[in-house]
Structures are given as structure tokens and as C-alpha cells.
Automatic annotation (TrEMBL):
<dbReference type="InterPro" id="IPR001753">
    <property type="entry name" value="Enoyl-CoA_hydra/iso"/>
</dbReference>
<dbReference type="Pfam" id="PF00378">
    <property type="entry name" value="ECH_1"/>
</dbReference>
<dbReference type="InterPro" id="IPR029045">
    <property type="entry name" value="ClpP/crotonase-like_dom_sf"/>
</dbReference>
<comment type="similarity">
    <text>Belongs to the enoyl-CoA hydratase/isomerase family.</text>
</comment>
<protein>
    <submittedName>
        <fullName>Enoyl-CoA hydratase</fullName>
    </submittedName>
</protein>
<dbReference type="InterPro" id="IPR014748">
    <property type="entry name" value="Enoyl-CoA_hydra_C"/>
</dbReference>
Length: 263
């Protein structure tokens, strides 16, 4: 049934499997992937046979996060900037509004927006060496596209501040201890089978009961998002126009230490 360019979608035995499929770009979430994820998640309302989702990825990394190559286009074109804001808002809200549980197979690193997508889901099966981080501040941006919502909900405010204000990563074993990861497996190859096993378990249960419980639990996060998300997204948009974000991207590409001026 796959009709997308940057993701793969298959449905079998009440389980929808969505696979990020830009391995050469470390599954960075560009505008197209944003839109395709929103589209497939929005389609769930018309797919009553789907009772659970497995979210997986291809290649070495789960997702490197947002695509930094789009920074210059965003700064140069107000329409691109508006689209970026709107799809970012839609993606997180659509994840939080999904009516069925989502189980993540975290075989490799997830950074920035990639980590926030993971933490907006309902169970995370992670390989021990996989890492999570929200690197927005390192890239010169406010952690606006969900980090200020999902990290505190998962690990508590103080630990969330520790990681969101530094961009430091947390490995899967520490993430398991802090509440960011629900299940640990030994190798990257074990993550997808582990996620599929949980998905099959969920799919075997009464769907109305599961879906009502999922929606009730997510109401807490949706209320939190209502308080924080639009504000943090607006602040992120301001930093997208800063000189510091250009310096961050150029320094990364040139493999040098950045010099920030708060401009």
C-alpha cells in the first residue's frame, strides 16, 4: 500500500508498520517526511482495521532530526518558513492525537525532532547502544517542535532541563532508568522484533478499551502541549531567523568550533 517517497507503510494483522526511509540522510525529517507522516497518521480515522502502529527506521540511525540543509531556505523565504512552522505543529499534534498506540523500534540514535517523535509515542523498544538527544540549542534553535512537552513528561522537569539546555545525549540504558525508554534489547537487530511483539500483544486486546485508554492517557500530554507548544514553536521561529543558527550550521559543515554572538 506504500504511496510515499520518504516512508514505507505496510499493514498486516491489525498492525501498521511505518518505516522512515531516508537512510542516506540518516532519516533526517525534511518537509516531505513531515507531510507524509502527518498524512499517514491522519488516515487512521478511516482505517478501523489498524489497532496499533510500529514506528521503525532504516540504516544506521533512527533519525538525525530536522534537516539542517533547509535552514537557509527557511531564512530566505517566508512561505517556506510558514510551511515549516505549520507542518511542525501538525506533526506533533497529529502524533499526540493518534487514536491507536504507537510502539517505536529504536535501533539507532534519534536526535532533535527524531527524538521528540519517539517520545511522543507510547512504548519504546531500544537497543542498548542507541542514544537520544534534543540538539536544538546546539544548532542555535529553541527546542520548540515538541521537546519542551515530551521530555518533561517522560523524565521529569529537572532532568529534561539538564538535557534540553545542553543538547547532551542520553544512552538507552540511562534513558530506560529515567523513563524515556520502556524496553531494552541487546542489539539493533532485536529492536524491531521486540516492538512487533508488543504491537501484536496490543492488537490482540479489545480495541475500544485500548484506544479509549490511549486517548485518556494522551489527554494529559495534549493539555501540556496546549500550554507550552505554540509558545515554544513561536520562539523557535524567531531563532530560525538568527545569525547564530547560520553560524551553527556553517561551523558544523566546516568542522570547526562555532562562535555565537546572541544575534
Amino acid at each position: 500500500m506504500n504511496q510515499y517517497q520518504s516512508i514505507l507503510v505496510e499493514v498486516s494483522d491489525h498492525v501498521m508498520e511505518i518505516t522512515l526511509n531516508r537512510p542516506a540522510q540518516l532519516n533526517a525529517i525534511d518537509q516531505q517526511m513531515h507531510e507524509e507522516l502527518v498524512d499517514v497518521l491522519s488516515s487512521l480515522r478511516k482505517r478501523p482495521e489498524v489497532r496499533v502502529i510500529v514506528l521503525a527506521s532504516t540504516g544506521k540511525a533512527f533519525s538525525a532530526g530536522g534537516d539542517l540543509n533547509e535552514v537557509f531556505r527557511i531564512q530566505a523565504d517566508p512561505k517556506v518558513r510558514q510551511d515549516f512552522h505549520e507542518t511542525g505543529r501538525l506533526l506533533m499534534n497529529t502524533l499526540l492525537d493518534a487514536g491507536v498506540p504507537i510502539v517505536v523500534a529504536l535501533h539507532g540514535d534519534a536526535h532533535g525532532l527524531g527524538a521528540n517523535v519517539v517520545l511522543a509515542c507510547d512504548a519504546v523498544v531500544a537497543a542498548r547502544r542507541a542514544r537520544l538527544s534534543d540538539t536544538h540549542v546546539v544548532a542555535g534553535m529553541v527546542a520548540g517542535d515538541g521537546g519542551c512537552v515530551v521530555w518533561p513528561q517522560a523524565m521529569g522537569m529537572m532532568w529534561a532541563k539538564r538535557h534540553l539546555l545542553t543538547g547532551d545525549f542520553i544512552d538507552a540504558e540511562a534513558a530506560y532508568a529515567r523513563g524515556l525508554v520502556t524496553d531494552l534489547v541487546d542489539s539493533p537487530e532485536d529492536a524491531l522484533p521486540g516492538a512487533r511483539a508488543i504491537a501484536r500483544r496490543i492488537a490482540s486486546l479489545p480495541p475500544l478499551a485500548v484506544q479509549g485508554t490511549k486517548r485518556s492517557l494522551n489527554r494529559v500530554m495534549q493539555q501540556r502541549a496546549g500550554e507550552v507548544f505554540e509558545y515554544s514553536m513561536a520562539l523557535e521561529n524567531l531563532t530560525l531567523l538568527s545569525k547564530d543558527i547560520v553560524e551553527a550550521v556553517n561551523a558544523f559543515k566546516e568542522k570547526r568550533k562555532p562562535v555565537y554572538k546572541g544575534e
